[in-house]
Every structure is written in structure tokens, then in C-alpha cells.
Amino acid sequence: MNVLVVGAGSWGSALAVLAVRRGHRTVLWARDPEVSRTISAEGRHPRRLEGFGFPRELVTTSDVGRAEIADLAILAVPSSAVREALGLLKLPPRATLVSAVKGFEIGTGNRVSQIAAEIHPGNAFCALSGPTFAREVMRGDPTAAVAASQDGGIASLVQRSFSGSDFRLYRSDDVAGVELCGGLKNIIAIAAGIVSGLGLGHNTLAALVTRGLAEIARLVLAQGGREKTLLGLAGVGDLLLTCTGSLSRNRRLGEAIGRGAVPGAALEQSVEVAEGALACLAVARLAESSGVEMPITESVRRVFYEGLAPREAIENLMTRELKSE
Amino acid sequence: MNVLVVGAGSWGSALAVLAVRRGHRTVLWARDPEVSRTISAEGRHPRRLEGFGFPRELVTTSDVGRAEIADLAILAVPSSAVREALGLLKLPPRATLVSAVKGFEIGTGNRVSQIAAEIHPGNAFCALSGPTFAREVMRGDPTAAVAASQDGGIASLVQRSFSGSDFRLYRSDDVAGVELCGGLKNIIAIAAGIVSGLGLGHNTLAALVTRGLAEIARLVLAQGGREKTLLGLAGVGDLLLTCTGSLSRNRRLGEAIGRGAVPGAALEQSVEVAEGALACLAVARLAESSGVEMPITESVRRVFYEGLAPREAIENLMTRELKSE
Question: Which of A154, B107, B256, B296 is close enough to B266 for a disulfide, judged by CB 3.0 to 4.6 Å?
Fold first, then answer.
């Protein structure tokens, strides 16, 4: 199969390596020609996944025209670049578009499937999500994720194309639920990082993440997603990874803020995009238009954009009125 | 209110301190007279909660006859001692029995509420559970947990008696679900510890915990518990804490085994009871009689009692057949 991966950040690069391991003819598109050159010439990424070699079979390019021969095109760009990247892709009608993006379009709150339906209405769509740190996939650690498509045949195709003993995909047909969980957990992870950065312990973290899951559930159900997705790899699994794992950039951003960094400055200094800091803007609006309460998301938004003190934000969240769960 | 805490391990001791902080006349019963004496004379626990002082108002005793004046009797003994402790308690009819135990009776698989209904059928019952490391409660970190009773008035009473700005209780009426979640997560935590002890990363851990939640869900629903409990503090919250938090004794036991310790020897060396190592016996039987598949629980049981190699156990779990979630 011909696989094109659009975006050579950590996750896009790891997916491209995985595709090569599965025997696919794989092209990795990097916006920055230096990334493309270094991977080709030196078998390493100049800025990400330090210490890992890239296979010689991986072709890299900075020319997105290569999409024309793709059977699977995997989108792995920051959510802010999704519309532009989809606009550049010239997909053949048979190609399946796989989104590995976890975030929302800022202005509209659209999920990738919604943008894809606008720009590439004729192509099948699949969302790939779950608890997957790129470095651990590179290392071959056993990893499980979800391939969600409204078309069961497409979910099966993606599943078979990427599954092996170290990387396993489960099928789902809940595209909206999988996409929402993937984007929303980044916001909760920032709040989780703030808790740890403030010096609070695991009890507080566990309580916050549980309430985070509750507000994710409210929005997912309001948008037609399913409870099963919440309990699965794309829901609880990814939330747990991102809120407790040391490799999570959203969590790390929150930790820095909890320790006293200025939110705007910390965001600018983060090497890779912490999607949650942008997602909270779009999601706060989505929550309002869906009539859903999302106090953690709203607090994270206020910490970034209205100067709310991190300690005050966490205290407010932890002292809401006594009630049943 | 007169509060009696039965059991002076970490959690019983922390609950007794919490009761004092809430202004209750509190008696802590310790099986070992030395524990009782040291807390009274020196304001510290001789073997647990190192570095924390105990308030002077806390009365300690090794005479369980003190139950006769209790309004609330909190049971905080290892699950293997529940039946004996309940047999010793002479509860006045007005007293509410609160279980802070997370485990099962080995021979029968009974939950504490079921044993209590046998021995103290006239007393109201409430299960207290959630993500609560004792040290962090002592320190005053914001902590949230669940008080579950079939009698809403009793859940409210327990809620009001213990809630404050640093410790918040939520009400539930799903006693079976709350008790099951509290006991089952200890087994998954051992498996999570094995994953980390083997040197595998967060992806594998997140996948394992997610599948752990799925098997907890199957048994909870089969036994009449509710999905809402699974998603809440006693379910996901406590599972997350126990599987990722460094203070979890079940996780630590699993880590030692993953690094090569002999399971039986590691179990004997653990300072406090790792409930999961016993619970897997009772739960494997419960699962069988309920017709429910619990592969992680079954694997942990086989590691402890049938010599299954930890690495083989995890590999088997991570390479089950491809399917939808």
C-alpha cells in the first residue's frame, strides 16, 4: 500500500516509521525542507525523537504533490494547520484520509472529520486516536489505539494496515466521540499539570482527572458520541496517559504554569504545540452552544486568556458544592 | 458525634485524624497495643505515616469494647480481618457502620456490605471509597471520595460528617458498584506495576489500565452496579490513582515482580497488605460464576499462584485477537 504521512512532528514521524515497519511504501511530508533532508541523509530527525534512527526505506519530501499516489493519507499536523494542509492535498478518489490530529479548528470548533467533509467530501475518513506517545511507538513498546470510521470496511482496512504485535488497533464507528476525546483530554492534561506544578499530590490529581472525564462525557454525549468510547482507549486510556505521563507536552505546560511560569510565555516556549491551550478557546464555545457545563475547560481558558491565578483556579474547582456524583 | 475507627493502618489512622479535624470525639482502635501506646504517648504512629503528628484529642485503644458508644464505626482493617473485626464489634442499634475496606472475603468473595448484613443486620451501612492516599489526606491535599449507602440519609450523614475544604465526599446509592470498584482496582494495579517493572512505557500502561476498566465494568454491571460509578471517583478515579501513583502498595508489589522478584516472596515482604494479591483469588471465582471474562485478573492470579512468568502474562494480554473495543 502507498502511505503518505502529512506532518513530520513526533507523531507523524513515528507513524511513518510504523508504516515502513508494516511493509508499506511510505512517504513522509515535512513542511520544513531541512527536516526532510536530515531524515533522508542522516536517518534521524533534526529536532524530534532524539536517539531514534529512521529506516532507509522511508522517503521524505517537502512536496505535498506526492499525495496523488496515496492509498492512505495520514494527517498529522497541528490542528491549526489542518485546513491549509487538507487544501494542499490532491487526493485520488480511492484514497482514505486518516486523521491523527487531536484538536479543533480554533475559529469554528470544527473537528477534522468536519473539515475533511468540506474539502474532500469524496474520500473515506478514519480517525486514529488513543494513548500513544511517539517515542514509545518508535521503541516498539506494546501500544493500543482506536481506528474510527463510519464505514466499518475502512476501519478494518486501517486496522489491518497498521496492527502488529507491538501496535494494535481496535475498530470503532464513533468518529465524533473519538475525535472529541482526543481533543478534550489535552485541556484536562494542562489542568492536571497545574495540580502537580502547585505541589499537590495524587489524590487531587485523580479527583481532577475524574471530573475532567465527567465534563468530557457531557460534551461527547451532547454531540452524539457514545459512552463506550469514553470508557475506551481514546477516552479514559488517552486521558490517563496525557494526565499522568511525563512525555505529555500539555501536562508539562501545565506543570510549568503551576510552578509559576506566565501562561502566555510558557506557551510560546513549548517546543511542540500544546494543543490544549488553543483547544480550550474553541471548546468553551462548543460547551456554551451545547448547553454543557465544563468548569475545568473554562478554568484553563481563564488561566491562559484572562489572567486567572492557577492556584485559585484549582481551589475553585475542588471546592464546588457538595453533591452526588 | 462519637466516631470509632477500627484498624490503625495508614488509612484507618488518617481517617481518625480527619475525624478529629472535623471536631468528632474519636477513638482509634489498634490491634497492636504498641501502636495504641505510641500514638497516645508520642503523637506519632510507630510504623506508618512517618513524619506526621497525631492530634492530642485522638483517643487510642486496643479494647474494641469502645464501640458501644459509637455513632459512626469506621472499619479500616485488611479484608482478611473483616469478619473477625465485625464479630468483635458491639454496635449500638443507632450506629452507622462505614466500610473503608477495599477487598473481598477470600473464601466467599463476599463484599463487606454482605458480611455486615450477616453480622450486624440492624445497623445502617455506608461504603467509603475513592482515590485517597493516606499521606496526602494527612497533609491536607484536596481529596475527593464517595460515600455510598442504599439509604440516602445515611450517605448524607457520612458526607456531612467528613467533608471540609480539603476532603470532599460525594453521595452515591450504588453500594455494590463502589465496593467492587474499590476491590478490583487493586488487582489491575498489580498488573500495571508489572508493566512498569518490566521496563515498558506509558502506552502499554494506559492500554492495560483501559482494559482493566473494561473488565471491572463487566463484573460491576453483572453484579448490579452502575456505569456511573465506573466513570466516577470510586471507579476511574481510584483506578488511575492506584495504577499510576507511586504510593500504591499494589502497584509497588507488581513493580517488584516485574523486575524479577518471586511473587510469593515479594508478597510476604510487603509492609502493608497488597489486597490485590488476595482479591484475585476471590474475584476469579466471582467472574466465573457471573460468566464474565476477566483476563487481567486471571493473569495476576496465575502469576501469584501458578508460576506464570510476568512477561508472558503481559504479552498474552497485549496480543489478544484484533477486534472492536
Answer: B256
